[in-house]
Design goal:
This protein is of the alpha/beta class. The protein has 10 helices and 8 strands. The chain has a domain at 22-143 and 210-287: 3-Layer(aba) Sandwich (Rossmann fold).
């Protein structure tokens, strides 16, 4: 597999240059946008981190489409998908999408918020899931016992309360680096893509705005019933408090294993795409 390089260009690209042109399906109060490479291979569904969107998976849409049908939705309120106007759950949106495009059962590949959506879906819609790959999040909210994470979370919450978007963005980006690095240690193209995608999501929302997201109930207990294999593909440089949520998942699922990706923080698929793609492909092959 050749190296994947994220482009600096902000110009519009053709479907050939941007695998899986964006299309949409109707949901209860709007549309859910997604990218679909098509093809006869087993479906892989890429679930993005909070405030980001399908562009964070450019290297997976390119690198994994050779043997798989790769689908990358924008979650409700993110990217090109509609904002919520009534109570909803991300897992219900995902299940509706999989039915709409006849793509189940699928391997769900989630990063951060996307990992939690993957876990929720394995609990709520087990018939739609063949396996899970999670990165950076697992069960529950971080407890922020580490000083770096606690101060970062507090600073981010304070910036949001003041509606200081610039300060919020500067803090949000630090999660990509993790506690042992600064932003200058992360590929500037990766940081630029995170910044641009998060800014697009923020621009979709106004304050004050109701939060219509309904959490899935009792995930910590019900995760023990996840029958499919689970792979944790975590960045070695990610914050320990975030990785601890993945530990909680691996502690309860019957078939869980971890592979650590060197040289990556909270977004290993972006920083080390070749290594990340190899882990996903190996995992899918093991599923048979």
């Amino acid at each position: 597999m050749g190296p994947c390089r994220l482009s600096r260009s902000r110009t519009a690209r053709t479907p050939t240059e941007r695998p899986g042109g964006s299309v949409s399906c109707s949901i209860t109060d709007g549309v859910l946008a997604y990218r679909d490479t098509g093809g006869p291979g087993a479906p892989l569904v890429l679930l993005h981190a909070g405030f980001l969107g399908s562009p964070m998976f450019e290297c997976q849409l390119r690198g994994l489409r050779r043997g798989h049908r790769v689908i990358a939705p924008d979650a409700r309120g993110h990217g090109e998908s509609a904002n919520a106007t009534m109570p909803f759950r991300h897992t219900d949106d995902l299940a509706a999408l999989l039915r709409h495009i006849d793509a189940g059962p699928a391997v769900l590949v989630g990063v951060s918020m996307g990992a939690m959506i993957a876990v929720d879906t394995a609990i709520e819609y087990p018939e739609s899931v063949r396996g899970l790959v999670v990165s950076g999040r697992g069960i529950g909210e971080p407890q922020y016992r580490d000083r770096w994470s606690r101060e970062l979370a507090d600073t981010q919450a304070g910036a949001l309360a003041r509606r200081d978007i610039a300060a919020w963005m500067d803090t949000f980006l630090l999660w990509a680096a993790g506690p042992s690095r600064s932003l200058v240690d992360v590929d500037p193209i990766v940081i630029g893509r995170i910044r641009a995608t998060a800014a697009r999501t923020l621009a979709k929302h106004t304050a004050p705005e109701p939060d219509y997201l309904v959490p899935v109930a009792d995930v910590a207990t019900r995760a023990a019933g996840i029958a499919v294999p689970v792979l944790a593909a975590d960045g070695a440089l990610d914050a320990p408090d975030l990785i601890a949520t993945v530990d909680r998942l691996l502690d309860v699922v019957p078939d869980g294993r971890r592979r650590t990706i060197d040289g990556a923080g909270h977004f290993p698929n972006m920083e080390q795409p070749e290594a990340y793609n190899r882990l996903v492909e190996e995992f899918v092959r093991e599923l048979g």
